[in-house]
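Changelog-linked ticket: zinc ion example.
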Amino acid sequence: MEEKVCSKCQGTGWVLVKEKEHTVARRCDCFKTGRAQALLEGANIPPRYRECTLENFEIHNDSHKVAMKLSKKWVHDFPVLKWGILFLGPCGVGKTHLAVAIIHELIRGKNVPCYFYDFRTLIRDIQQTYGAETAKTEAELLNPIFQSQVLVLDELGAKRTSDWVEETVFYIINNRYNNKKLTIFTSNYIDRGEEEEDKKFDHFRKEEPSLVDRIGIRLRSRLFEMCKVVSLEGEDYRRKVKQAGYRL
Ligand SMILES: [Zn+2]
């Protein structure tokens, strides 16, 4: 591969600048760009989402507008944030686009180490670490997931929950929560809210599985403690930003 050497610093990452009678070393511009490039390459963003930015996010309705505004504010306020984001909504409304756009902005603008993982891939990869011919150990796999400043966990619940999956995912998410690391989730499953826990409603529930059905009550509660819930939907604008106290 051809490697371009910076003409300002000849690839050293440092430039000498005259200040009065002294000559001092300063970081070259290419150093910051190079750092962002390295972080971007290490962020595990799938090729189909690599071009997703806030600028090219298409706004088709009010819920898009609200989600966009919140995403921009989140990027702006980082790292002074207490909440992650849970983007909820059906397929194709731009949840993953926004989640990836946020980490793009953080990497390029603030050199923040971020990491992307698809939920189904994560479960599969964890399962594979138990196999005989595995390349990665569980620790190697989970390290960037625990360590990254911002993690995007895409398509939460998209793989059927078993006790084992629930336990592992709770462990990962709880670990990040305890270490005050921010996580952005996306999920296609609807959240029916508090009444979900009231078994009286079981008879009246529709067939369509909800978030709780997919990830369990314990994880759902933890998510709501960790995140602002942003719904991307077509018709119902009432639950766009569900939790109180987050002013746009
Ligand atoms: Zn340079």
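Closing comment: Example verified and attached. The pocket of zinc ion is lined by residues 6, 8-9, 28, 30 (CB under 6 Å). Residues 84 and 227 are 4 Å apart (CA to CA).
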